[in-house]
Design a protein that fits this description.
Distance between the termini: 165 Å
Number of strands: 4
Largest sheet: 4 strands, antiparallel
Strand content: 5-15%
Mean pLDDT: 73
Structural class: alpha+beta
Strand order of the largest sheet: 2-3-1-4
Shape: elongated
Helix content: 25-40%
Number of helices: 6
Low-confidence stretches: 23-28, 75-81, 83-95, 106-118
């Protein structure tokens, strides 16, 4: 028997869309806030206008005048060309009074005291010049010149030789030493050859005390010459040239 006729299937109506929440526009963030994980927001403020008074050139405290002029007027500076004090030095209890008119000008700076140590060469040359000057009057003197070879091994003991030589001097004797070139000279004023022999004896004794058994070996390496009355030299400069330059 034929199948019964059935009505075609009818599609079910589609469900109605769900209503969504209204979308609101994003409000700007407040100053100083930041999003999650981001750096803090900062507000940029424009700098104030500069103060015109700060841009003006600084005022000259001296009014366009050289401050040194006032110091010169008070006598605190010296004229380097003339070498004299400019103006009048203020008088104080510990300072000398200003020089009288017409008196020689004071030095710009007073010595601080102490001074430099005297040059031993000056004393030696003065004594030698005086000995040459008195030679014409028949006053004898003796010059002893000593030297060592700077390249010789014994030259290392020249310091001990110099110390022994100085220890053997009389109060009136004068010595001049050139340590780098290992040379020395002694002037014995108002003395004859016997004074030179006494000098060598004292030198030997002091050197033996300082070096012991090595003293004789060092003395053998010393070349010494005695010059009575500075002869044959005519001037002290010629004798010095022989002792230190020859």
């Amino acid at each position: 028997a034929p199948a019964p006729l059935t009505a075609p299937p009818v599609d079910a109506p589609a469900p109605a869309p769900e209503a969504s929440a209204p979308v609101r526009p994003m409000a700007p963030e407040a100053p100083g806030s930041s999003g999650p994980g981001g750096p803090p927001a900062t507000e940029v403020v424009a700098p104030p206008a500069p103060d015109p008074s700060l841009l003006a050139p600084p005022e000259d405290p001296f009014g366009g005048k050289d401050p040194a002029d006032g110091l010169f007027a008070q006598g605190y500076l010296a004229d380097s060309k003339g070498g004299s004090v400019v103006g009048t030095i203020p008088t104080a209890p510990q300072m000398p009074a200003a020089p009288a008119p017409g008196a020689p000008a004071l030095p710009a700076f007073a010595p601080l005291g102490g001074g430099l140590a005297p040059d031993p060469g000056v004393a030696f040359r003065s004594a030698l010049d005086a000995a040459f000057a008195s030679r014409a009057s028949g006053i004898p003197f003796v010059v002893v010149a000593l030297r060592m070879d700077p390249a010789a091994p014994n030259a290392a003991h020249f310091g001990a030789l110099e110390s022994s030589l100085r220890a053997s001097l009389r109060p009136s004797d004068r010595v001049l030493v050139d340590a780098p070139r290992k040379r020395a000279a002694v002037v014995l004023p108002s003395s004859g050859p016997e004074a030179a022999q006494a000098l060598f004896g004292g030198l030997q004794d002091h050197l033996r005390s300082a070096l012991g058994p090595d003293a004789d070996r060092v003395l053998q390496s010393v070349a010494a010459v005695t010059v009575p009355d500075g002869q044959p030299f005519q001037t002290s400069a010629d004798l010095l040239a022989y002792a230190f330059e020859g």
